[in-house]
Amino acid sequence: MRSSILLVGAAVAASVAGIASADPLNVVYNGTTGNLGKNITVSLSGGLFFQNGTSSGTVWAGQYSHNIDGVDYKTFCTELTQFAGSGIFNTIAMADAPRPGSGMGQVKADAIYRLFNATNKGLAIDTDAKAAAFQATIWEIVYEYDGTESTLNLGLGNVTFSSGINAGLFSLYSSFATAQSGDSTARVIAITNDTNQDQILSVPLPGAAAMAGLGILGVMGRRRRRN
């Protein structure tokens, strides 16, 4: 089974200060055992290929387990070409991920912000079907979204899903991501590694942890205004 992509959901409060400092992060990939999600079938086109050179197959859509600077996280993926793995990662603005590459841009980044905010930063993902549909929505945003909801489609585009995704849940999450009145506050940040899949951390958390996240979010806010 392929070690597929990631995007981080729920975080642990004690770790946020270290992540927000933007220092290099030691990331250890711990697999998918016991996590929410399911195996699905994905096909790539338009010049996209998996890291092993294939263009279709079965991947895990759902939560991954990672340890980041000594703290355990449940994660979701942001890339479909590179595979999950351990290494040293760095924090960057969401619009600049994934790497290598030129980044997804602010329109897609804002859609991811709205998606995470609407689902309580991923904490409401509590079934296998929800986790798989949430992950599929993230992939569709990164690879297909152009600012219109119609571009988020399970069966069309350069990333297609032939089985395993609940269409009703996917439609719901797509509506969260594309709702222009939705909350696009930057509460997720990307961590990147050139050879392993990039991840996205959900910050800040309530209380003291929220204050710890303000530094990195302030940097992100200044970058968005410049753009």
Structure description:
Helix 2 crosses helix 4 (167-178) and helix 3 crosses helix 4. This protein has one domain (7-226). It has helices at 16-20, 106-118, 128-144, 167-178, 208-212, 214-226; strands at 7-8, 25-29, 37-44, 56-62, 64-68, 71-76, 87-92, 159-163, 188-192, 199-202. The longest helix is centred in the middle third of the chain and has 17 residues, at 128-144. Helix content is 29%, strand content 23%.
Estimate the strand proportion: 15-25%
Overall shape? globular
Runs in which pLDDT lies below 50 for 5 or more consecutive residues are 1-21, 204-227
Strand order of the largest sheet: 1-6-5-2-7-9-10
Q: Key features?
A:
disordered N terminus; 29% helix; alpha+beta; 227 residues; single chain
